[in-house]
Amino acid sequence: MRFDTVIIGGGLAGMVCGIRLAEAGQRCAIVSQGQSALHFSSGSFDLLSKLPDGEAVADPIAGMAALEKMAPEHPYALIGAEACESYARQAPLILQETGISVVGDCRKNHYRVTPMGKEKATWLTIDGYLTAEDSGQLPFKKVCILNVEGFLDFYPEFIAEEFRKQEVVCHFATINLPDLEHIRKNPSEMRSANIARVFDHEDNLAALAAKIHALAADHEAVILPAVIGINRSDAFEVLKSSVTIPLYLLPTLPPSIPGIKAQQALQRRFRSLGGEYFLGDTVLTAESEEGRVKEVFTVNHGDEPFRADHFVLATGSFFSKGLIATPDSIREPVFGADTLFNPSRADWYTLHFFDRQNYQAFGVKTDRRLRVLRGGSAVDNLYCAGAGLAGFHPIQDGCGAGVSLLSALYVADQILKEKRS
Predict the structure, then answer these.
(1) Omega within 30 of 0 (cis) for the link into 255
(2) Left if phi > 0, otherwise alpha if psi is -120 to 50, otherwise beta: which for 171?
(3) Is residue 199 located within the same domain as residue 330?
(4) Can you say whether the dihedral through the CA atoms of 64, 332, 319, 228 is positive or negative?
(5) pLDDT tens digit string along 75-121?
(6) Residue 381 lies inside a defined structural domain of this protein
(7) Which of 204, 230, 250 marks a domain boundary?
(8) Helix axes 81-98 and 257-272, enclosed angle (nearest 10)
(9) 361 and 385 Cβ atoms separated by less than 8 Å
(10) pLDDT for 31-63, tens place per residue?
(11) What's the pLDDT tens digit per position in 134-171?
């Protein structure tokens, strides 16, 4: 099989890179072994919320200028602050075109509310989820927190405890419907994805709207767990249009409905542009010739190789097996790429779970064009994007999704520039 570009990995970085290339007319393939980290998403996309020294970042673009000096191996430093700003302005438009409506500004972090009711600085949040422009500025003072009866992955009491710190009066209510009773017969089926399917149906949305009117008419807003539809994109909009009180969603524990819906939207967009998506397949080996990758081989296609002019490594980090830890090293399993890691395993981590763990910054080494290094030299047509890149702490610095989005767009532009030249 012959393509212009083969992307290995179908998470946020792989999908966005593929969409950008397909929009430019390339014939692209994405090989994805299964679920990505998007299935654990909280409905937000972080750009940069802290510097490596722990200083909070209000303006992510300004923070990137400081980051170039503090962490020269960070992907943002390799891309450059000016280019990062350009891609940070393009990313929301790409998401919007896929059907993922987001709010946010790359020059000012806002605050989204977590599943535990706490505030977290972020860049973009999917429209409909509870946010505040500034810390401690919730948009209501009396709220009803509404849960599905028997749903254990949503925590109204914890949420209310945080809201009360802002002097918000919280009331609780639960809802039940015949279709919910059906899945409640087996407690293990009371998961967000199964509940969300119930609200794909028009009659259940109407019944929910009626219950909201009856339960919360004297409140300023209603908080709902993010389980309103999964296979239809307009379920929450339909519900909002059926009630007069403001509604807000809060993410639940995984599996993440906003993440699953985002993944589905990205896949639909990629395929609509002519991209070929190979789900449930794993790239095993690669063949190179004269400093360039020639072809890759997968589990499902056996001896039939994927050939391309360019390849993008977007397999992620340890979670998705894009990086493999051995007792004394970190390796990239497909191409044998050079990796950044501390040679002393004792320095990989600390025993305090919430500390800044060194292993989180381990990853694939690249040059400034994000071409993968192998044996110290850049492979001409092999790029890396997303969580597998070395040099950044996605959780502590609040930049995981931003690195995926910006590096994906940057890599796509590198490929298109080389193609034009």
Answers:
(1) yes
(2) beta
(3) no
(4) positive
(5) 999 999 999 999 999 999 999 999 999 999 999 999 999 999 999 99
(6) yes
(7) 250
(8) 90
(9) no
(10) 999 878 888 888 899 999 999 999 999 999 999
(11) 999 999 999 999 999 999 999 999 999 999 999 999 99
State the pTM of this model. 0.95
CB atoms within 10 A of CB 165: 11
| 376, pLDDT greater than 90 | yes
Has residue 120 been placed in a domain?
Answer: no
Burial class (CB in 10 A: 0-12, 13-18, 19+), 80: middle
Q: From residue 12, how far is each of 24, 93, 160, 284, 409 by CA, in Å?
A: 19, 15, 32, 21, 11
Token duo for residue 381? 């047509």
Nearest Cα residue to 208 out of 146, 264, 120: 146
Backbone angles phi, psi at 244, to 5 degrees: -100, -15
Domain of residue 143 covers 130-250
Would you list the DSSP string of 127-154? TTB-EESSTT--S-SEEEEEEETT--S-
Contact 233, 261 (CB under 8 A): yes
Report the chain's terminal Cα–Cα distance, integer Å: 25
**Other CB atoms within 10 A of residue 320 CB:** 21
244 shares its domain with 264 = no
Each as own residue / partner, the long-range contacts of residues 326-331 (CB below 8 Å, 24 or more positions apart, any chain) are: 330/359, 330/362, 330/363
Tell me the backbone φ, ψ of residue 268, rounded to 5 degrees: -60, -45
CA distance 154 to 253: 7
Q: Quick check: 232 and 202 in contact, CB under 8 A?
A: no
Looking up tokens 């405890």, which residue turns up? 161
CB atoms within 10 A of CB 172: 14
Of 250, 276, 296, the one marking the end of a domain is: 250
